[in-house]
Amino acid sequence: MSYFRITLVRSAIGLPRRSTDVLKALGLKKLFHSVSPSVAGQIMKVKELVQVEECQYRLTKQEVHLERKPDPGYYTEKSCSEQRGELGGQ
Amino acid sequence: MFKSTQALFGGLLWKTPWRLSSPQKARQRKRLRSVDRVVDTVSAALERNGQTSKAVSRWFAEMPREEEMLPKDKYTLFDKKEKSYRKSIHKLPKWTRVSQRVNPPGF
After folding, report:
1. Would the keyword Membrane be found if you checked this record's keyword annotation (chain B) (predicted)?
2. pTM value?
3. Does some domain include residue B101?
């Protein structure tokens, strides 16, 4: 089972009502759609406005968020709770 | 405040250039390629699942790809009111978000 990962990259402002309605029907908050002829037809209607990838499984909202998260620029060698535990032991 | 420029004052003066600049043409090619990529992805995914879609097969039957198109068709389109029967594609409303690839044969 594979999925289309659809991202809206251009707006449908000023385009025919049909394009807006198709985008609404695709519900792009959902992001992942299973591969089927009906979804393919919908993508073809708005092919100028979206980018499509094929994925093998659905990513969760959390995973999608983590993909976009920038590198923090630092890393912790030891967590605070660990350090506190050591201090408490002494 | 009203500023008397030639465009505002003199009636018929069109400020839209009649031809595309080269960066505009480059971006047009980029957009054509991105549409090709979307259609390719969709058709490959359907094929892997053993399905077909009428819209996709029709697109492949009727539309040329970006690399197959002539520069003439990429940047201009047919217009019966023009002397050369062609006008620049940026005269087409919403030209960055519509697919305009084929023109009448012979023009």
Report:
1. no
2. 0.80
3. no
For chain B, list residues whose CB is within 8 angstroms of any CB belonging to chain A.
31, 34-35, 37-39, 41-46, 48-49, 51-56, 59, 94, 96-99
Closest Cα in chain B, distance from residue A23 (Å): 14
CB contacts < 8 Å between A and B, how many? 67
- Candidate from B37, B59, B97 with C-beta closest to A44: B59
Q: Considering the domain boundaries, does residue B77 fall inside one?
A: yes
B87: β partners = B77
Instruction: Dihedral sign for Cα B89, B94, B96, B99, please.
Output: negative
Segment B43-69, tens digit of pLDDT: 999 999 999 999 999 999 999 999 999
> What is the domain count for chain B?
1
Enter the ipTM: 0.81
State mean pLDDT over A54-59: 90
Cα R_g (chain B), whole angstroms: 19
